[in-house]
Design goal:
7% of the residues lie in helices and 48% in strands. It has a five-stranded antiparallel sheet with strand order 17-16-15-14-33. A hairpin with a 5-residue loop joins strand 28 and strand 29. The chain starts with 10 loop residues before the first strand and ends in a 5-residue tail after the last helix. Keywords: Repeat, WD repeat. This is WDR86 protein.
């Protein structure tokens, strides 16, 4: 089945510059750089051509939860309640976005705005240029864990072309999703149906639909024009950790140790990808191959059509929190503190009939760079200091997170 270890055959490089677990990995739109955010309170910029660290970003006063990389700037959010913008040339911090009163767990940058989600039960909008807070989205009764952005052209049945508005979509541990009008911070619509925390989102703007994954073990499809739930995907036996939308298929990674492939139209599960020994924490589709990261410290490559396991990438010692694919290289980051680079050419070349055109262009992989920010990957283990901070927060707010 081609599922042998690639410790020696495919491992290109191990980058161990961080001295704490790596929680997030972001790829720049032009593919030149990677950005990692770590438990060691720092972020690092990596060259994809040389696979070396070329910049260190220091300044946060607690661990970094997530990050976002553009071609000209890096953004990091932290348990120190702030978001920071960094210059890629100098490594200097060019803006600090302050206002949240608790851990900031997600950041999303699009159309000159920075959106942030926090355990303080709010999402916020900031001007990327000035660093000024433009809007606060308050209304959730618990943590905001997932963000998505769309316009009225994506959302409304017949939008007024002269009054195109931006909308922010938030998913929360209070089991609801909310749609907000960005310009005035007003809650436009609340979507109810889940019975567990919402961890991840996937936008299907072509069909004006939204998919949400939850700790209630379901994926749900929503009609954004009507605000109605149109389908419930029920076959998982564990929390839905991550989603990937590709053409007419939706892939969902779960704590039940599987990934499932669903037909968007019917909601039918057409394939299940097994062999993971722990939670599936990250998924990426690339040229007919589904790459996964897991709590069992392994990454895997599956043929999406046959479901055959092509390769197991072994070497990490803790959960893989995030993965990226670029130029036939697989990048994985883990709570073991390393970034690992794997050569996946042999995996991609096994199927000669697979089109060479990168199918990610129309997939959620690209959307995630500018429209969606979710709880992709189960909560990694924390350092003693950060673990204590989260325990205190949960006791104060009565929160139970996956």
């Amino acid at each position: 089945m081609g599922s042998g270890s690639s410790r020696s055959a495919s491992l290109r490089k191990v980058c161990a510059d961080h001295c704490g677990g790596v929680n997030w990995l972001s790829l720049s739109p032009d593919g030149r750089y990677l950005l990692t955010g770590s438990e060691d309170w720092t972020a690092r910029l990596w060259s994809t051509s040389e696979q070396q660290c070329c910049m260190l970003f220091q300044g946060h006063e607690n661990y970094i939860t997530s990050c976002h990389l553009e071609n000209d700037a890096a953004y990091t959010c932290s348990a120190d309640h702030s978001v920071r913008r960094w210059d890629l040339m100098t490594g200097g911090c060019t803006a600090v976005f302050k206002g949240h009163s608790s851990i900031v767990n997600r950041v999303l940058v699009t159309q000159g705005c920075l959106f942030s989600a926090s355990y303080d039960r709010t999402a916020r909008c900031w001007s990327v240029e000035t660093g000024r807070q433009l809007q606060e989205f308050r209304g959730h009764r618990n943590c905001v864990l997932a963000l998505a952005h769309c316009s009225s052209q994506d959302l409304l049945p017949e939008p007024d072309r002269e009054q195109v508005r931006d909308f922010l979509i938030t998913g929360s541990t209070d089991c609801t999703l909310k749609l907000w009008v960005v310009s005035d911070g007003r809650c436009y619509r609340t979507l109810r149906g889940h019975s567990g925390a919402i961890l991840c989102l996937a936008l299907d703007t072509a069909n004006k639909a939204l998919f949400s994954g939850s700790t209630d073990c379901t994926v749900r499809r929503w009609d954004l024009t009507k605000g109605e739930q149109t389908k419930v995907f029920r076959e998982h036996q564990g929390s839905i950790i991550c989603l990937e939308l590709v053409s007419q298929h939706l892939y969902s990674g779960s704590a039940d140790r599987t990934v499932k492939c669903w037909l968007l139209d019917s909601g039918k599960c057409v394939r299940t990808y097994k062999s993971h020994k722990r939670t599936v924490s990250a998924i990426r589709y690339h040229r007919g191959i589904l790459f996964t990261g897991s709590g069992d410290a392994c990454a895997r490559a599956f043929d999406t059509k046959s479901g055959v396991l092509r390769r197991v990438f072994r070497g990490h010692t803790f959960i893989i929190n995030c993965i990226q694919i670029h130029n036939q290289l697989l990048y994985t980051v883990s709570h073991d503190g390393t970034l690992r680079v794997w050569d996946v050419r042999s995996v991609l070349e096994q199927d000669k009939e697979t089109p060479k055109k990168d199918s990610q262009k129309g997939s959620l992989t690209r959307l995630c760079n500018n429209k969606v920010g979710c709880m992709w990957g189960s909560q990694p283990q924390r350092t003693e200091r950060s673990s204590q901070a989260e325990r205190e927060l949960r006791e104060q707010e009565g929160i139970e997170l996956v």
